[in-house]
Records
---
Amino acid sequence: MRGAVGAGFALGSPCPLLAAPRPDGSLAAIAASRGLSFGSAVSARWLDHDKFAGLIARECDTITTENSLKWKYLEPDRNIREDLPAKALAEFARHRDLDTRGHCFIWNHDERMPAWLVEMTDGLRRGRSRPLTRHMWRHAAYLGRTYPDITSWDVVNEAINPRNGKIRHSALNRLMGERFIDLAFRIMKRKAPRAQLVYNDTISWEASSLHRDALLRLLERLLARNVPVDALGIQSHLGNTLGRPRDETGWRLFLQEIEAMGLDIILTELDCSDRNIDDPDPGRRDAETAAFTRGYLDLTLDFANVKQIITWSLADGVSYMNRPGYPAYKRRADGLALRGHPYDDRLRPKKCTGP
């Protein structure tokens, strides 16, 4: 059964867990043997760390640009781009023969978009969105021209509010309604015509079906309007559900509906925070996160339209979870560093806990 690949990709995996083939035994090689691609989000700040750069090059066939291509960071001031990190990642990928995923064109949170862009919309009335859409076209043209090797783009990120199932309130939604999603995909289809175009969201196997149902209805409407969506990105931050109720039956039904729509699936941001595990022992924490992740992957990878697994950090030490700005409420109560990735804070593979 295809889902058996889950044992090899559990975050407590040893193993060590398409662009050019990676070394035998690497996570990418394990994935490729099962018709999958494997990669990790990478921050440009770590590219000068030779051991980490070597780990990424050995274990992955794909990288995702963690923050460097988010519009907020790429163009913090109007017409002034801070693109050295993004260009460094693009160069790294080229030299290491890695595919690159671009994250992301539009993030439907005002605080996650450039402040100058959101402020510009304050004086615009609904239906009068041309100043905003002009900047969307300009930005997409820059992305397509400057990063032509990107094979997959998260075109719209987190459009839905998971608490109520509605399109999240934002400047984009206020001015254009849901059709800002259509426009974003059509723009990127023009400016990056060879790239896979992905709708990306925080969905996983939470007990509540509200978010899943809202996402299904959104995708149905987009496809009915011939919006060029190629794939669904499922973030899969599993720590949100570790030790809490989850809905495996509902998750399988959700995946069946996505498959029936003809969309591919990418697990775009896989990790499993151990903040809900009271035990301080790192080995036992790793065993529990591994088992939980394996269960999720065994179920999810049963669907042949799942094509790729991307971890949101390959190692604990470089993880966003352990950076100073990570919210206190998402940290462990005992103050210990979070463990949620295949490699530890010294870039050592974690002990194998699976078959």
---
Amino acid sequence: MSTTPARNLPQLLAETKRWFDDALLASMRAAGERPVSIGQAAVFAALDDDGTTVSELARRMNVTRQTAHQAVHALIGMGLLEQVPDPASARSRLIRPTAEGARVHRRAQDTLAVIERILAERIGAETVGVLRDALTIPLGEPPLVKAP
């Protein structure tokens, strides 16, 4: 008889994120939006209103510059992002949403709000509130620990 080991907190958080991602992407496709990958969708969450460099996007997304570059250029090809000169640096370019990209991002944000309400119906609004509050508390630097 085999038993499944208890899932640790990082696994549970990753499963919950995947649940949100799956619901968002399926809902956007069902609404007639062009499909994007999770990595491409993450670009929008990392963008500043005035634009962001690819290097900064990579840092915020915790991916390589090449990975961020690939996601950005795919979204440029879809007409959702554009590159513009960076007024602060002649050598840099900023990535920002096009009007269509901004519309799609707003729709995605609205869709996530509905998904969160559904989660609240399933596990309780108070539970979702406590979870949101707990996840917004600054954690400080990651600890360096020794296994017992």
